[in-house]
Amino acid sequence: MSGYTHRLYKQHLACFACRKVWRQERLDSESAPLCPDCHQPLTDMGKDFKAPRRNATAQWAKAEALVKNGIRFSSLGTSGTIPQRLNEVEAFVEARAQSAAEQAAASERYERQRAKEQRLAEVWDRREQQRVRQYQKKLSRPAD
Ligand SMILES: [Zn+2]
To answer: pTM to 2 decimals?
Structure first.
């Protein structure tokens, strides 16, 4: 990712205290900038974040809850639809964690299966080599 670190891009930086979004072009290697109004650190919401209206406090709380759970608005395309309401966030985060755990378990099963096949192949190889050695020994033995 080294080629990516100094690219300039437009960010949606949210201040949850002011319920405002600041669009800034900045280096993504910079640390989080501060809100121009209240000087709290801004949160990078990703480039696809759509800010709720200032008085939509539940929507802002929802966005904050999603971000705190590591859900970025630019990476949601592959992980299903974002919850519409604050009270859906918990279930959404849980389902995501569960599917991540299921994926991890599936890949572990796959790795175990592969390791088993690998061991079997090695055993097979050793037997084959043994058979070849025995055959060669038989060939080099002088005929009676
Ligand atoms: Zn602020």
So the answer is: 0.56
